[in-house]
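Hey, can you fold this one?
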Amino acid sequence: MSQPSIDQQLLWDVETARAYDTPGEGMFAPEVIGPTVAALADLAEGGPAVELAVGTGRVAIPLVEAGVPVVGVELSHAMIARLREKIDDERLPVVQGDMTTTRVGEGFALVYLVFNTISNLLTQDEQVACVRNAARHLRPGGRFVVELWVPQLRALPAGHGATVEVSEPGYLLVDTYDALRQLVVSHHVGFDPDLGGGREARITRSPHRYAWPSELDLMARLAGLELEHRWADWDRSTFTADSRSHVSVYRLP
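Sure. Predicted structure:
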């Protein structure tokens, strides 16, 4: 069975880039951004960093403001344009390209991927290539950091292929699973929570390939990296069998 072909420029278009930033809320909330930036700054240990798939600069901009030099890699024209509305190229250089192959130099203290970004690569080969590309940027002792969700296959009802991940007024997130290919499609449903507000809803979908923590560890080993830490979140809490996500820190010997 062939893997799906996704045009990333269409997936991450102008409309998506405009809607991506939610200042002060969601993944832009201070309680989310603060621990993320603090952990990454500590891991960089004063050295320069690379963010793969930098997007609109959600993490890179506050990390730069915290004193860590960052270079971004980003494929989407629209996401780069949105980032440039907030910060100039001198303070945050960005190279347009694919995170599996694009090189921006070497000798970096830190390379990182946040908010499930590696799952945007829809094959195992692409994910392995991404990890290897990250490792090539690092100096000895440098770190590669990945934030990724833990697949909730245990939550799948018998005979069903979907889970409801978020249910709140005006928004539903439903994930449908193809367990044979480790593919998930996230269905984001927005609607007026007032029943008198009409019957229309807006649906957007995004495809992902999930990888188990152990699979990610093997990818890292193939790239010459060693697991240093695994946390349940950026607050560095303990990762357990019940954790819904993880932050994994790998180090180049």
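Confidence is low (pLDDT under 50) at residues 1-5. Let me know if you want another pass with a different chain boundary.
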